[in-house]
Design goal:
- The protein has 130 residues and is mainly beta.
- Strands 2, 4, 5, 6, 9, 10 and 11 form a 7-stranded mixed β-sheet that branches. The chain has a 4-stranded antiparallel β-sheet with strand order 1-3-8-7, with no helix packed on it.
- Strand 4 and strand 5 form a beta hairpin.
- It is globular.
- The protein starts with a strand and ends with a strand.
């Protein structure tokens, strides 16, 4: 059973920076794409970031949704992914979920990856106050 355990989140002030982390229980997920979603109250779940596997000869491909691309950075270290957020805004308030695809999923790291996530973290609340 693959488990994704998230950490980070909490109550922060607008303008702060925050780092969310997600660690996979199965190290085989170093060969999986990993990503992040968020869902604000009353809104649908938004696919905001993804990162491919590191193949040893190039940096992994990354994807950031236009709504977050200027302030969010996604990185990974083997079977762990991080989402670094700067200049937090109240509109960033949401439950953030990490996710992973099966290993070696052959889909470009971008919007088309969305249907392929099969493992999910428990979610963590990020609340940004003004």
């Amino acid at each position: 059973q693959v488990q994704l355990v998230q950490s980070g989140g909490g109550l922060v002030q607008a303008g702060d920076s925050l780092r969310l982390s997600c660690a996979a229980s199965d190290r085989d997920l170093i060969n999986s794409a990993m990503g992040w979603f968020r869902q604000s109250a009353g809104k649908s779940r938004e696919f905001i970031a993804a990162i491919g596997r590191s193949n040893g000869w190039k940096d992994p491909d990354t994807f950031l949704a236009a709504s977050v691309a200027d302030r969010f950075i996604i990185t990974r270290d083997n079977a762990m992914t991080h989402l670094e957020i700067t200049n937090l805004k109240t509109t960033d308030t949401a439950v953030y979920y990490c996710a992973a695809t099966p290993p070696y999923t052959l889909v470009a790291i971008g919007p088309a990856l969305r249907p392929h996530f099969s493992s999910w973290g428990q979610g963590t609340q990020v609340t940004v106050s003004s």
